[in-house]
Amino acid sequence: ARQLAVEPRTTLADALRDELDLTGTKVVCDRGACSACTVFVDGAPVCSCMTLAIEVGKREITTVEGIANDKQLHPVQAAFIDCDASMCGFCTPGMVMSCAALLKSNPKPSPDEIKTAVSGNLCRCGTYPKVFEAVLNASQQGKAS
C-alpha cells in the first residue's frame, strides 16, 4: 500500500498518473462523461477524473495495470488483443476495466448485457463490435476472473 500527500483538489486520476506514474488510466473528457479513466475502488468501477484522491483514503485502488495476474494478462486484456478491440487506445483502459467488472459480476453475459455494461464508455474510433466480441470470447472461454 502506498500513501500520498496531495492537495484536496487533486483527482484520483491525476494522483495515479502524476504522483504514482500509473499512466494506463486515461483522462479524456475530465468530467466523467467517457469512462476512459475507470478504475476500481474496493472492487467497484468509478470514474477517477470525478473522484478526489482524498475521498479514497486507505481504500483499495486497482488500475488497468493492476488487473493482470503477475506477468499474465487479465483475460479481458488478452481478449482485447486477440479480437483487435482497440484502435487509438484512449478508451481501451476504461473499456477493459468496465468489461472486467461485468465479467466479475456476470461471468456469462448476454450481448445486450455487454452493451449495457459499456454504455457509459465512449469510443471515438467505433470499436464497439470488437469490444463486444472480446467480452463474449473471454466469457465463453471461462475467463471471467
Topology, element by element:
Elements: H1 12-19, E1 38-41, E2 44-47, H2 53-56, E3 61-62, H3 75-82, H4 92-105, H5 111-117, H6 128-140
Antiparallel strand pairs: 1-2, 1-3
How many beta-strand runs? 3
Gyration radius from CA atoms, angstroms: 15 Å
Distance between the termini: 22 Å
**Share of β-strand residues:** 5-15%
Give the overall shape. globular
Order of strands across the widest beta sheet? 2-1-3
According to CATH, the homologous superfamily of the largest domain is [2Fe-2S]-binding domain
Percent helix among the residues? 25-40%
CATH class of the largest domain: Mainly Alpha
How many helix segments?
6
Strand/helix succession: HEEHEHHHH
CATH-defined fold name of the largest domain: DNA polymerase, domain 1
Main pleated sheet: 3 strands, antiparallel
Question: What average pLDDT do the residues reach?
Answer: 94
